[in-house]
Amino acid sequence: MIEASGLSKRYGDLIAVDDVSFSVQPGEVVGFLGPNGAGKTTTMRMLTGFLPPTDGHAVIDGHDIFSDPLAARRAIGYLPESPPIYPEMSVEGYLVYVSKLKDVPRRLRNEAVDRALERCGLVDVRRRVIGSLSKGFRQRVGLAQAIVHDPPVMILDEPTVGLDPIQIREIRALIGELAGVRDGKARTVILSTHILPEVEAICQRVIIMHRGRKALDAPLAELQSGGASLEEIFARTTAREAHAPVDATPEARP
Amino acid sequence: MRHVGAIAGRELNSLFVSPVAYAVMTLFAVLAGFFFLSGVLQFQEYVIRLQSFQAMEQLEELNLNDHVIAPFLHVMSVVLLFLVPGITMGLFASEKTNGTLELLLTSPITIWELVLGKFLAAAAFISILVLLLALFPALLFLYGDPEIGKTAAGMLGLLLMGIAYASIGCFASSVTQSQFVAFFLTFVLLLVLWMLGFLADLGAAGGATSNDTVGDLLRYLSTADHFEGMVMGLVDTKDLAYFGVIVVAFLALTKAAVESVRWR
Predict the structure, then answer these.
(1) Which pTM was predicted?
(2) Does A73 contact B110 at a Cβ distance shorter than 8 Å?
(3) How close, in Å, is residue A182 to chain B by CA atoms?
(4) Do A93 and B102 touch (CB under 8 A)?
(5) What's the confidence (pLDDT) of residue A248?
């Protein structure tokens, strides 16, 4: 469903993402982990076509992001780090607009918007202006925007950030519902998060990024069978390569 | 190109739910009313004075087109210098601060569709303003007999100028995140483009340009000079082409600027 090979992003001398390759199978839910600045967001932005990779390429649902960018983007639902909302629009008006941008055919548009509203628990606020909604609702609007065209690939950048525990549980349940194979159509999810139990709750596979590189890529079941908790694995993975430069950082000084 | 309508529609909608559209329209209408009224009153006074002097020759030359409508269109073209930046400042800058540019650039739309949609929304709003403005000269037709062709040519000139300004505002908004910066950048660009003709006249008067090629070039580049011809009733292909080139050039620049977000 997603084939990334050798993805790199350099800004001058700064290497944000360095030669990252992975593939995601149809229907899989993959958790993207890593410390802040590890390159998770940059990698996701490259997959969505927002940022062109300096090197490497990616194929989304059979469409190359370079040679067939529009088809690749059509196959993706993307929730950026902060939900891309227009504060002055109504929830429903916004979703109708997004469905036009995402090429939902006119006759299916109302149905698509209704389904997204329902799935994200937004039916009661459909006529409200987005700017007047709480953070949790705005996040849901962001998620509704990502799923309104029922894309085969969903890329969610920290979908539960800033939500309260109940909302987090709802969103997780929703992601669980969205993914998988339904009506003969596979839906794949990549999500990034800092919350490790979230990964254990909904992901089948874990990719840990560290300093722009892929540090670990394994099925969750395999990791858990080793007896170590995900937290230990995360700490070990992100500490390992950091040793050398650590001595040089200001933290090493008294 | 099917996304152009969706993008332009949303933009216009946003303009009309925010106070910006109404503030701009009110300001425009109030200023237009003020300048129109003062123009008409001046004209009246002038007529009375000429009659009292029995200056029949000058009275013959007096007409509504040259003495009311043309000055009115001139002053409104200056008002556009201030108002268009206010209309266009948010086109791209607000998408950047909202984070919605990320939505647009990851949607299956082309950058041309995005740029055209934004530009058309601004151009449509400016057309509404110019139509609003047309009510004032229309009043003159009720009480006098100005030439319709000449009046229409002048209105068309103002419309084309406003649309050309919209493309420049589009560009300014695409190079910055701040609406404030976009406003002033647009204003400065418009002012410079408008003043080039005066600069040439100034240079010619001071004898700075021995050969007049530079002066002619400056005058050709100036928006004011092309507008001038249309206010006098001359719809020249050269002037139409000038406004067309401005629009195409600045939209191409806008496209490049939006695209460059990706390459940074």
Answers:
(1) 0.89
(2) no
(3) 24
(4) no
(5) 37
